[in-house]
Design brief:
Length: 317
């Protein structure tokens, strides 16, 4: 087997060989590190069918034959592994993401198929938040929120009338994304309904160690959180930086998120917004001490619970 790919060009050449695809996935499946296991009965008594690139369980039961796709985001897909793995490489490593139209042209598949693939890959990029709470390093944590949506001045008259219903522009009709960021570390972001105190402070308490240094803007929703955190506020009407008190790290993340949404994806349904947030958070959190091949390896095998989830998810909305 050739050396594993390090660049996009390497990946396209490497994964054009179906045997390389199977070997790569087999080597990176943690549950198969001691040998292939039947996903139905758990037996290790399986044989490889080289002509079909599948395994056959020696026990008699339904679904005795299975491929390396089983238990991943690629399960039940008729697309070849060469297209799947190239798409995963592109989405995990392109700074502003990759649109379904670009993937459709690059891989020679339909745009609808590319759109569905990208949503499945975003599912694999979700953070399970298993690494504990932020703030333990002592570097401080920033919390902020932003609005995502079209600007009123760019809307057609009928669209503006329908969405704003006589109200002024600004934040009306936009989705809200809130996030916490450990300086020099990871970000955790989610879509929220409102910027109320109970919602934003719940996000902080769920993800930040108590007594950590916490920095926010002057939004009133953060009032009272200093009982649990060393909370300091920067009023953006006066200044954006006051020594260590600022939220510029969060502004950096918002810039990357909106660059992808506005520049690459152009139009994102609010129902799917959390998937695009997960995608950008994955790239942001794995930007340091990691190359393209490492990020790809992290995303290539999704958790079994995610695979089960995608099989019962309505992706048509």
């Amino acid at each position: 087997m050739a050396a594993e790919p390090k660049t996009l060009q390497d990946a396209i050449i490497y994964f054009s060989n179906p045997d390389n695809c199977v070997s790569y996935l087999l080597a990176h499946r943690s549950e198969w590190k001691n040998g292939v296991v039947c996903p139905t009965c758990g037996s290790k008594d399986v044989g490889y069918i080289a002509s079909r690139r599948m395994w056959q369980c020696k026990s008699r039961h339904p679904k005795a034959q299975f491929s390396v796709k089983v238990g991943t985001i690629m399960e039940d897909s008729a697309l070849g592994l060469d297209k799947w793995l190239t798409a995963i490489w592109m989405q995990t490593n392109m700074k502003n993401g990759v649109s379904s139209w670009e993937l459709h042209r690059s891989l020679g598949i339909t745009q609808k198929c590319a759109w569905h693939m990208l949503h499945r890959i975003r599912l694999a990029l979700q953070d399970t938040f298993s690494g504990g709470k932020l703030g333990g390093s002592g570097n401080g944590v920033e919390v902020d929120e932003t609005f995502v949506g079209a600007k009123a001045r760019n809307m057609h008259g009928d669209v503006k009338a329908r969405r704003l219903q006589g109200r002024r522009g600004g934040t009306q009709g936009k989705a809200i994304v809130a996030a916490v960021l450990e300086r020099g570390g990871k970000v955790r972001a989610k879509v929220v309904d409102r910027r109320r105190k109970h919602q934003l402070q719940a996000l902080v308490r769920e993800n930040v160690e108590p007594k950590s240094a916490l920095y926010s803007d002057a939004l009133k929703s953060y009032d009272g959180i200093d009982e649990d955190y060393a909370h300091q506020v920067i009023d953006h009407a006066i200044a954006y930086v006051d020594g260590q008190v600022h939220t510029n790290g969060m502004e950096n993340f918002w810039s990357l998120l909106k660059r992808g949404i506005n520049g690459t994806y152009v139009s994102v349904e609010p129902y799917h917004l959390f998937r695009y947030v997960d995608e950008q958070a994955f790239r942001f959190n794995n930007r340091q001490d990691m190359n393209d091949a490492d990020r790809f390896a992290m995303a290539v095998i999704a958790d079994r619970r995610q695979a089960a989830y995608l099989l019962r998810t309505d992706w048509s909305r």
